[in-house]
Specification:
Elements (H helix, E strand, L loop, with lengths): L5 H21 L6 H12 L5 H13 L4 H4 L1 E2 L6 E2 L4 H11 L3 E6 L1 E10 H8 L18 E3 L4 H11 L3 E5 L5 E6 H9 L7 H4 L3 E3 L4 E5 L4 H8 L11 H9 L8 E4 L2 E8 L4 E8 L9
Parallel strand pairs: 2-3, 5-6
Antiparallel strand pairs: 1-7, 3-4, 6-7, 8-9, 9-12, 10-11, 11-12
Helix pairs in contact: 2-3, 3-8
Keywords: CBS domain, Cobalt, Magnesium, Repeat, Transport
Function: Plays a role in the transport of magnesium and cobalt ions.
Family: Belongs to the UPF0053 family.
Amino acid sequence: MSDDNPHSSRGSASRSWLERIASIFTAEPQDISDLEDIISEASMRQLIDSDTKDMLQGVLDVSKVRARDIMVPRSQMATIDIEQPLAEILPILLENNHSRYPVVNEDKDHIEGILIVKDLLQYALDPNNNDWQWLDLVRPAVIIPESKRVDALLREFRQKRYHMAIVVDEYGGVSGLVTIEDILEQIVGEIEDEHDDAEEHDIKKMASRVFQVSALTPLDEFNETFGTQFDEEDADTIGGIVLHAFGHMPARGESIALGDLTFKVSKANSRRLMQLQVIRAREAEPEGS
């Protein structure tokens, strides 16, 4: 009968597909693998494209992720000191191009609040506003533990309409920060803005022995900067070298030592490395640095 009516087999397959979806949502799934199987089959049948599959998988993965897994590490936080005059703050804003900055008192363990650039510009560009101090614009900071689930944090971001949270460890010390963009990138992949291309291959010195390095930095540029001799036949970028050394796609926070350098993943998604923190061993530090 199916030979005489080719639509019959397709109709049967469609009913089977719909029945499987229905069974997932009407029954109580034992684990998330049931949903993952449905998503994989939908992609194989070309009912959804690969980008949609990755996004759906990202939604499922968010429930497994904690704030410590996606936070911007403390060493990479761009902050403003409460004692800085406005003239010193503006270059920081221009260099980093963020929309929000933690305001600290002496060090990063003492967060006084959050400065939103939009608030600052509103006052700075209004010629009628002469009697104001930038400290008056600082908003309270949201503090969360490292163990905070990211799906719960996203819900709070939406409900309470804030976009940044300061992450603290079990002793109350600041570990880093999380923004709503960090969470969305776990779902949809990297969100690039107009500044990303300009910064893509940067090697930025954060401290005497600590550097922020794009994973896409060409290997010859990295070797020249750090005096290393990674083989350019093994990879085109430093990210390729690090990925090969790990032997798997590392998550944020994972680290590995290669020679005198320690590489810590500071930004990554399920598909690629984006940013690395590179730390020189003390004995490898050049004289005078």
